[in-house]
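hey can u check if this looks right to u? its 195 residues, i copy pasted from the old doc so theres a chance i mangled smth
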Amino acid sequence: MGEEAHQVTRLLKSWSSGNETALDRLMPLMHRELSRLAQGYLRRERDDHTLETGALVNEAYIRLVDARNVQWQDRAHFLAIAARLMRQILVDHARGRSSRKRGGGAAKLTLEEAQCALPSTSIDILALDQALTRLGQTDARKARLVELRFFGGLEHEEIGEVLGISLSTVERQWRLARAWLYAALSEAPQPSSGA
């Protein structure tokens, strides 16, 4: 993985410098990572969720290509941006579905992978987005850390690289962010199941 990560970094920097052919060589390398992220998100969705892995990857890819002014740093930075885009795509999809169903049918996902022990095994993605937005207003770094870990699937070491903080700081802030999210999501109203 080390050589591939270096190759990805070189291609990202070349793409940032305006080399469009670098993007053509980069995407096959990153497609596997983007698919892994998308599969992880969609695995936590409701059974009747209509967004498929390929569609989520394609939409993220389109948005990544449109991000022309990004000065790409490395693979972890790319995955962090992809995670943020996928989060927004899922939230937009959930909002659209929710508005069509007059408040019902919000997308659900588990927080097992994010290691959050919630009273319920799944939560409303809109509630998660709102909680992360609130956390970001009080502590932007913790919100970003959660986004990188949960939506980006990054390991603590990679998060430290992206945020420019030590591994011990990542681990400490992750524990605090998990506790904050547990409290925020435990208070969030759950969608009603009745008519």
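Residues 2-187 form one domain.
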